[in-house]
């Protein structure tokens, strides 16, 4: 059993720091940062550094990346809501928070799916709780007690489970930590992450997966076998497909709920010029509005191009069926998140009701762990499976879901294509690696597509490259998570240039 | 749409305060406290105070309890793990944290299911982030913008949903806030909460329930009808059953995993002397140990008394079936939490496999919201439904689950008896109100029982009263949540007397 002991690290708070008069505090960042620090910092047992990384669920992690801890620093980055454009009122409150952790133990950027309330009513945040004159951080030192230490090689301490195992903000934090561990691994190999995964032997890949609670549908041996079988044709899929043509995408940039019709037309027109052929529309606020907007889009894109709909959990089950039936004339390929992301049987009921209309159900962006996906597949509750690079436990848990989807594919005619979610805000940069790996090493099937939102890419050192409505494989080594220093500096909260202006304007 | 605006409240941090040299910070307390403050504080729109309480999901809340905000203070209480006795190694890391919020808006105690790592590896916590020289809290002011403001009368802001709707630490925090609102309401009426609920007319009770995502199985009208029908025989159930005999309970105090056999025998012997007839045993660490311990207990309690087993999510589905089958000779009434609390279909599979052995499945303590319970009932994934007063969204969400259980009861021979979970630590004090309400006003059925753990009751002003292995109905007005001031003072972290000694010993 791992034991933990709290201790202070003087000077742990060096680095980028909020002024001490900062007025707010972090919500998700705290468990995230604590988790990160608790897992990685080790002042006494240098030799255990590698064991700690094993504890992260990466037993094959390169030892050369583990070395004595040093300075940690971090800085919050926020893009105010207005910069996101006039989007869906549901998303009106989104501010993006990136935590950049520059860390000598694992150099890299921690990138998490951390959302906050919007600009006008911004969710109070700062890093003051994380960096103060007196060290406020308590570091958790992991000590191996006995041979059972590796019994549950997981990020989850028993106590944290009681808050709600593998869900909520702590799971998001764990995902961020794991993603930060993958990035430098890929960098050290001189490969983009998708290539690191593609080149990895099945045994090593499978060693990164937590199979707890899914062995009734997928065992380690079966996972290995899937990966071994997919070696056939791999080279061709890399070179003739991915490198040559990229991975198909669809756009979510045109039809947010908040867009007036004129904007919708303009954006749709631009997207058509940019060769987009698949368009997703937000629905669910008002049926008449939905009918009008879908008609508008359909008129512009024509019958050959694809339309999908996204309700972002608006409805109960009966309402979902009724509402989508009234939109069936627009022949959407799928309706996304019709109801609660926790409602597996509800989505199964919606799927069954809409199947005669030729409309599938897509879901996954808020499905919090592999156990939910397991059941969605078992219950045939979805037609299109939407992973998320940061909602699930990073690459590790996404691997398990991709493999379960492959395992289940033969049970249904449609094969459960994986069509990842991403709402922009850098999720594109991450998930592109996963989908390319999925095509090359797991599914070998391109009857699928990945979401694309034209959102905040300019803040990334290695933004996605879209060509002919397809994701082109990243070439730079790493996980594409690095942000531009100037962007971070300008958007630092609350004293970065961008926020100073906003907060001054708000005060007036 | 509600809008929010952040602003500071000078002096918001008055009251009990941790020394500024405190070294750690709160994890669950932060979203909890923020939530509470954000919902209740209103410096400008006094007339909206009542609306804010409506937003809490309590539209009938007495206006007299809403008045201008004043001083807020709070203090963490912790019981170190060693005080919990030699319990289950799974629970070894439990520290109980109570946040007492003495608040002029809603006088009362906020009590939340907040668990932390155990003493030796205690999860770093303090309230420094909540109370500092410079106000760190940002308060969120709710302003009603238009007629759609009451469209989604729920605690859930859209942005918070993105962290993971109605699950994890934020849902626990919301539950704590709601529980704190119920307590003074009962007090003002001069009634214990169970009586407040029993005396409430169906319409008012139903107005406290959030029916989102469950209308496919239970509508407001159906809920009202269930409550109306249960009026028959209510008086007799109160007087002849509850007041005279109390509510049946079972004990979890004897057989934690960490107990050596001698302790197990001693505790079991004492429990038998105290007239306990139902005993639960923790299982799942080691099969041979489980066989030995179950045999030991069974020998002592005999064939007429009831044995149950609790695995605390130890197994995958196949392992659960295999393991419990090997314990079937002890004829357990149920096996509890055999697998992941997210695995509805997994529990359905276990239920089906164990049914021929006469063993039911009990689950619920970590089922995070009503949508999960809806599916557990739909899938017949459980035989015994275990609500939790603090895991679900307080009284409000528990009401919805009790009513769904009643609605589904006719679909199965066993009727889905509600047998609440509580791990001690004050949960007994709260859930007793819910089960009495359930018996009197919903189920009218006593083929059910409530967990009891002899744990930390001495810190409560109005601890549970157990007589002949039954919960006697509380008589004091309120929700039994109040803790003794001296207990709070002594266990305040880190400068209370108890913690000072522990931390000094730890340092040596």
Biggest β-sheet of chain A, characterized? 9 strands, mixed
Largest interface: A-B, 86 and 84 residues
CATH arch. level architecture of the largest domain in chain A: Alpha-Beta Barrel
CATH fold category name of the largest domain in chain A: TIM Barrel
Question: Structural class of chain A, please?
Answer: alpha/beta
CATH C-level category of the largest domain in chain A: Alpha Beta
Beta-strand proportion of chain A: 5-15%
Average pLDDT, all residues of chain A: 72
Number of strands of chain A: 14
List keywords for this structure.
TIM Barrel, alpha/beta, Enolase-like, domain 1, 2 domains, homodimer, 9-stranded mixed β-sheet, globular, 14 strands, 17 helices, 37% helix, 508 residues, 3-stranded antiparallel β-sheet
């Amino acid at each position: 059993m791992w034991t933990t002991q709290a201790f202070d690290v003087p000077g742990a708070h060096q680095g980028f720091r909020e002024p001490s008069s900062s007025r707010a505090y972090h919500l998700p960042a705290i468990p995230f940062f604590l988790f990160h620090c608790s897992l990685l910092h080790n002042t006494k047992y240098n030799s255990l550094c590698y064991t700690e990384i094993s504890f992260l669920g990466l037993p094959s992690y390169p030892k050369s990346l583990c070395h004595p801890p040093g300075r940690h620093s971090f800085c919050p980055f926020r893009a105010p809501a207005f910069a996101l454009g006039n989007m869906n009122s549901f998303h009106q409150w989104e501010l993006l928070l990136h935590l950049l952790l520059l860390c000598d133990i694992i150099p890299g950027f921690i990138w998490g799916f951390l959302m906050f309330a919007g600009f006008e009513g911004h969710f109070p945040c700062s890093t003051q709780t994380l960096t103060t004159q007196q060290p406020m951080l308590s570091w958790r030192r992991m000590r191996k007690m006995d041979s059972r230490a590796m019994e549950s090689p997981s990020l989850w301490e028993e106590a944290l489970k009681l808050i709600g195992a593998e869900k909520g903000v702590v799971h998001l934090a764990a995902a961020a930590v794991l993603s930060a561990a993958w990035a430098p691994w890929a960098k050290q190999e001189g490969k983009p992450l998708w290539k690191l995964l593609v080149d990895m032997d099945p045994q090593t890949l499978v060693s990164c997966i937590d199979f707890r609670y899914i062995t009734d549908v997928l065992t380690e041996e079966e996972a290995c076998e899937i990966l071994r079988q997919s070696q056939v044709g791999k080279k061709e899929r890399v070179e003739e497909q991915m490198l040559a043509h990229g991975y198909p995408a669809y756009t979510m940039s045109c039809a947010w709920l908040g867009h007036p019709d004129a904007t919708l037309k303009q954006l749709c027109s631009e997207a058509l010029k940019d060769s987009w052929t698949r368009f997703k529309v937000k629905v669910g606020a008002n049926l008449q509005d939905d009918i009008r907007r879908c008609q508008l889009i359909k008129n512009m894109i024509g019958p050959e191009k694809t339309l999908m709909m996204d309700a972002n959990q608006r409805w109960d089950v009966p309402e979902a069926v009724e509402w989508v039936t009234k939109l069936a004339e627009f022949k959407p390929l799928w309706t996304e998140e019709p109801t609660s992301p926790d409602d597996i049987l509800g989505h199964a009921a919606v799927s069954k009701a809409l199947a005669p209309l030729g409309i599938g159900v897509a879901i996954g962006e808020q499905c919090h762990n592999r156990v939910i996906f397991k059941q969605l597949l078992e219950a045939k509750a979805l037609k299109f499976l939407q992973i998320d690079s940061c909602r699930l436990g990073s690459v590790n848990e996404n691997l398990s879901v991709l493999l379960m989807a492959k395992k289940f594919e033969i049970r249904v005619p449609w094969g459960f294509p994986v069509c990842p979610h991403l709402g922009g805000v850098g999720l594109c940069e991450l998930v592109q690696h996963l989908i390319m790996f999925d095509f090359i090493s797991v599914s070998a099937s391109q009857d699928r597509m990945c979401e694309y939102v034209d959102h905040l890419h300019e803040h990334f050192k290695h933004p996605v490259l879209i060509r002919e409505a397809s994701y082109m494989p990243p070439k730079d080594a790493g996980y594409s998570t690095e942000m531009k220093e100037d962007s971070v500096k300008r958007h630092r909260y609350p004293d970065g240039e961008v926020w100073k202006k906003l907060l001054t304007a708000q005060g007036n």
